[in-house]
Fold each of these.
Amino acid sequence: MRPGAQAARTARGGALNARDDKQDGLRAEVSAYCARVGTDPLLVQGAGGNASWKNGDTMWVKASGTWLAEAQRTNIFVPVDLAHLRAAIAAGDMEVVPRALAGSALRPSIETLMHALMPQTVVMHLHAVEILAHLVRPDFAGPAPAPAPWCWVDYHKPGAALAGAIVARLREQPEAQIIFLQNHGVVIGGADVGEVETILTSLLACMRTEPVAPVAPTGAEASTMAKLTAISDEGIQQLALDPRLYKRLRKEWTLCPDHVVFLGAEAACYADAESFVAAQTMGDEARLAIIAGVGVYVAGDFGAARTAQLRCYYDILARQPSDAPLTTLTPPQLAELLDWDAERYRLAMAR
Ligand SMILES: [Zn+2]
């Protein structure tokens, strides 16, 4: 081998090692940050939210169904072909199926395109309560002061439709690093984890709302009904105990897509425990009962994911400073979200 070729090969090896080191460092930083935000229910609920980082033509993105809180305990990231996604986005193909690399068995998040279309190295998407509490109001004014350039995207079904809407908006505001998604959450892009964290911390500080004070339990009991268990979360119980929150949930149940997907398109309100048990006897598969003035009860195994969604819903309602109506998902948006045909939707709503 010629001496020059040997030197070039060594240099190339060094460059590759440097890139691998940078890659490992980035993975460790993103994982640590994800694990931190993932354990805060005001930032992440269950498997909600996702994160990504880009390295050359590869993007590492959270796998579908995995929990950010688990980022340091288990492998939640899947490498995908970024060049392939960028080519599809440039061609307007939002239905593109991401190509997982390195034979990963994990399936990339359904929000993968949302990460690929952001130009920044590190991207975080969260259903953060303090921000969501504003995103469900019809009079969203934006953060003051804004920690970075931001833009607003109207509600679209998560996946291809939402990605298409974000691409269109970023064409008008390519400098945006914060994207507010109506009734859904926030996307933040930064050069590194530190920048994303600084932006998020500023947003949370300037958009924070003091939750309403809790109402004392009335002492009414429904747990004597054999099939029911009270949810052991004081916030969730407020949905039944606080008349203002209860009034809201009857009209404004469909605030966020994850909430609807996990908890259904209608609030499970029952006049008393007997009517809930009677509904079950009639073949109703409902597992949740919100009983006005009494409490919130579940039948059987309700699960951590549903409980997290219900708590998030309470956290959003408790942060509404007035009785002004909130923006809810419309019947066509619900039908699209739940893949319901119009007839099934009509029947369900008529119940
Ligand atoms: Zn989301």
Amino acid sequence: MNKYVALLTKVHLHPLFWLLSGLAVMTAHFKQLFILFSIVFIHELGHAVVAQRFSWRVKRILLLPFGGVAEMEEHGNRPFREELFVTLAGPAQHVWLVGGALLLWKYDILSFAHWQLFFHYNVAIVALNLLPVWPLDGGKLLFLLLTRFLPFSRAHRQMIIYSYAVLFVAIGGVCFLAAKQLDLWAIVVFLLFSLWKEWKHHPYIVMRFLLERYYGKKGQYAKWRPLTVEETETVWNVLDKFYRGQKHSIIVVKQAKERAIFDENELLHAAFADKQLNIPVGRLIYG
Ligand SMILES: [Zn+2]
């Protein structure tokens, strides 16, 4: 099977989508649901096709009524540029979708009402997806940006805190402007749940990033950054300071005097092969 066609087998519908389909049956809003479904589907396929193009491992494409999630088996070790393209590939689909629909309307193939509905759905999906709230595309861009300036672990925590802040402002807006809109509340609940899960999984997410760094392909680092650490700090504390896409040397000091320099692989080896996550790095020097 062609690898792009194989992506279709990874499409799953979120339970909320079935719920909405049920509501559509009762309220005869089939057309709206179909249009919404098609837009979300193409948006997610945009992410997946570009990811496939970079040979990422695509886990599944989950479709929700108000957007979707293209889940990847990648943990923060792909080049910055690839991640940026994969993330932007979703929102970029709306450009040609809207452009195409506009042409169809101009040539009288699409009625004005349908064009308007299509346009509004596209705008709503893009606007929602670009909110800097995890796991929306805007949240992913925020995380990517933070990893440029902060260690991976700190960037991940900060990203969740910023996401919560933006979400609470958005909740205020919903209460004030559209408190009766159930679909917006469904989105809010979904995002609150996703953020809570992401926060809870923080240690595993950092661990996966490090494991992938240890076992995965080496040599895609854009920059070299030495890390100076006290000999009393644990191996885990030091690994927690690793940056995405940057190669590290670890300079171990005691009372401001340099004691040893380790390559990052030596530390990763100590952590994962020798299971010495909780010992002070100083112990690695003396045996
Ligand atoms: Zn997206």
